[in-house]
Write a structure and sequence with these properties.
With 205 residues, the chain is of the alpha/beta class. The chain is built from 8 helices and 7 strands. Strands 4-3-5-6-7 form a 5-stranded mixed beta sheet, with helices on one face. Helix 1 packs across helix 2. The protein binds zinc ion (ZN). Zinc ion binds next to helix 4.
């Protein structure tokens, strides 16, 4: 039985749903928010509401954006013929942090996992094939880098896409990040040096 007033307990409960936040940390954060000014607490609540209301997915690459196309897809200085395929929008951040990648992205929205009922049609895979459908046209795609996570589901996804791309666009270069990333972990947690090496050492698949 909780000894907190119900509104405090509600805040602790909601905070403890966040990843990496145990009940102790949730309590500490709740008391921090209670001590904060009304203004700061309202700013936090508004920021949460605003991202949920205004942030959607880019119509081209499915990265997060508050416009129809994300800033990366809108940037004319980037190589739009080089597409890096990642599982989640959060995977774009470590790729950008290494400052070696000048192409664009394609966010799948997850990884293939037949056991969990996640099939190709549940991910943004058809949309990727549509992007490489005209290999000789203007703004043609010359390379697809498969940067799914070095996990079983990530590897399965990379293999599936590589096979399909070979059939659909035989002339297209398809590469996979070099091994060296911690196996079983998420790209999201890779440091930029390790990721930079994995990118530089990417190999054709
Ligand atoms: Zn985009």
């Amino acid at each position: 039985m909780s000894s907190y007033a119900p509104p405090v307990q509600r805040l602790v409960t909601e905070l403890s749903k966040l990843p990496g936040i145990g009940s102790r940390t949730a309590q500490r954060l709740a008391f921090h928010i209670l001590r904060a000014s009304g203004e700061d607490a309202a700013a936090l609540a508004e920021a949460i509401t605003e991202v949920k209301e205004r942030i959607g997915l880019c119509e081209v690459c499915f990265n997060l954006t508050d416009e129809t196309r994300c800033l990366l897809c809108q940037d004319p200085r980037r190589d739009h013929g080089l597409i890096c395929v990642v599982e989640e929008p959060s995977d774009v951040i470590p790729m950008e942090r290494m400052h070696e990648y000048g192409g664009v992205y394609h966010v799948l929205g997850g990884a293939l996992s037949p056991i969990d009922g996640i099939d190709p049609e549940d991910l943004n895979i058809a949309e990727l094939f549509a992007r490489i459908a005209f290999p000789d046209g203007e703004g043609a795609v010359h390379e697809v880098v498969l940067a799914t996570n070095p996990t079983t589901t990530g590897e399965t996804t990379a293999l599936h896409i590589a096979e399909e791309l070979r059939l659909r666009a035989p002339g297209l270069t398809v590469t996979r990040l070099a091994s060296g990333l911690p196996v079983g972990s998420d790209l999201e947690y890779a440091d930029e040096v390790t990721l930079g090496k994995a990118f530089a050492g990417r190999r054709a698949v």
